[in-house]
Every structure is written in C-alpha cells, then in structure tokens.
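User: My instructor asked us to take a sequence, write out its structure as tokens, and then describe one feature of it. I'm not sure where to start. Here is the sequence I was given:
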Amino acid sequence: QVQLVESGGGLVQPGGSLRLSCAASGLIFSYSAIGWYRQAPGKEREWVGRISSGGSTLYAASVQGRFTISRDNVKNTAYLQMNSLKPEDTAVYYCNISPYWGEGTLVTVSS
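Assistant: Let's start with the prediction itself. The structure tokens for your sequence are:
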C-alpha cells in the first residue's frame, strides 16, 4: 500500500532552518507531483507548495523565497528546506501525493 512518512521536524529558533523529508513507498514516485501542507494550532490546513514530476515548483506567498521544495527520485523522497523561519511557521507539516497523506511532522519555531 502507499505510505508517506514525514520526518525532520523539531524545535528551532526564529531565523533558523530545518529540512523536512517525505519518504514515499507503494507508488511510482517519479511520476507523482508532491504537495506540502501545514496546519497550525486552531487553524485549517493550508497549502505550502508543490513540486511537479518534472521538478517545477510553486509556493504560497507566505513562504516564497524562504522555503524550497526538491525531490530525489532515486530515494523516493521529497524535501522541504525551510530557512528564515518565523514563529508563524509553527505547524504540523504534511506531504501529499494525491489522494494520500502522511501523518505529519511538527515544526515549532520559538525562542
């Protein structure tokens, strides 16, 4: 069956960086577009960005210029590099290969 597993979350100070990973199995990863989403406490899940099967990327305005999505089709893994983190980036981050979701990884940005 399809499985998506996010990792790499944790506690980071404002201005810091983290790299999240999304390891996929059970599907043809190289053919798949991958989305990253996040859900902050008390808020709805929001779209962060996506990478196409060909490597093209799109980002939400709130993370444009700070976050970068990449993929490694050999490792069947997608990445979300997050720089210049802000407290408002605190959320559970999820990857999505439609219609499948991972269970998320928590990112907390706090001093």
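For the description part of your assignment, you could build on this observation: The mean pLDDT is 96. Try explaining in your own words what that tells you about the chain.
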